[in-house]
Specification:
Blueprint: H1 4-16, E1 18-22, H2 30-39, E2 44-48, H3 54-64, E3 69-73, H4 78-87, E4 92-93, H5 99-107, E5 112-113, E6 115-116, H6 119-127, E7 132-135, H7 143-151, E8 158-161, H8 170-174, E9 182-184, H9 190-194, H10 198-219
Parallel strand pairs: 1-2, 1-9, 2-3, 4-5, 6-7, 7-8
Helix pairs in contact: 2-3, 2-10, 3-4
Bound molecules: 3-phosphoglyceric acid (3PG).
3-phosphoglyceric acid binds at residues 21, 48, 73-74, 136, 162-165, 183-186.
Length: 220
């Protein structure tokens, strides 16, 4: 099944290389965070529904920086999915694979990147026509070795490893053709956001975006 919009979204995520996974406590900080990430060369974010202000933060970021790609993460219920989409989220990520939840999101036309960790879950995703999947929790589940083995039988399926990704291990994932991007909280941690350390967040984003660019150039 082809989905041009999802392909375009995944293409933007691939260009960033790493999608900052965000836990934000105060939506007022969202535009400053968006600015730091954009200036750091990573104009994208996955705002997790781990805090009550997630939808508000998505709304504020998409309004202030419409060129950014903003998605919602840790989306566990239909109600959260609706709130994320209404706020302007371009994609929805969940940590695990819940058939009912995936069916609901796809039925509403939401662009969904569900979490998978086993061949069984990957095959369930395939049966829904999905080809962009989160691989979670990446490092704890066996890292690049586990993902390489699990991805091998499924041609065309591409993964966003998340969980334990950092500046030291991200390149090993990104050089695999079955990885379209990584996700991680290491670019903008909740403490740095709360303490308004946007300069530090921008610097980390710059280092990551430059490393991603160098890796891409090396492969071309
Ligand atoms: C997620 O929410 O997707 C993960 O918990 C992020 O994991 P990390 O904190 O190890 O990057």
């Amino acid at each position: 099944m082809t989905d041009d919009i999802m392909d375009r979204i995944a293409g933007k995520m691939e260009k960033c290389g790493v999608v900052p996974v965000i836990q934000i406590e105060d939506a007022e900080q969202a535009p400053y965070l968006a600015e730091a990430l954009t200036e750091g060369g990573l104009p994208c974010a996955e705002i997790t529904f781990r805090t009550p202000c997630a939808a508000d933060a998505i709304y504020k970021m998409t309004r202030a920086f419409p060129e950014m790609l903003i998605g919602a993460g840790t989306v566990l219920t239909s109600e959260q999915a609706d709130r994320a989409a209404d706020a302007g989220a371009s994609f929805i990520v969940s940590p695990g694979f819940n058939d009912r939840h995936v069916e609901y999101c796809l039925g509403r036309g939401y662009k969904m990147i569900p979490g998978t960790c086993t061949p069984g879950e990957i095959e369930k995703a395939l049966s829904f026509g999905l080809k962009y999947l989160k691989f979670f929790p990446a490092e704890a589940a066996g890292g690049i070795k586990m993902l390489s083995a699990a991805a091998a039988p499924y041609k065309g399926v591409r993964f966003m490893p998340t969980g334990g990704i950092n500046e030291d291990n991200m390149s090993a994932y990104l050089e695999k053709p079955f990885v379209f991007c990584c996700g991680g909280t290491f670019i903008a941690g909740s403490k740095d956001i709360s303490e308004r350390n946007f300069g530090k967040i921008k610097e980390t984003a710059l280092r990551v975006s430059q490393a991603v660019k160098q890796n891409t150039e090396k492969r071309e």
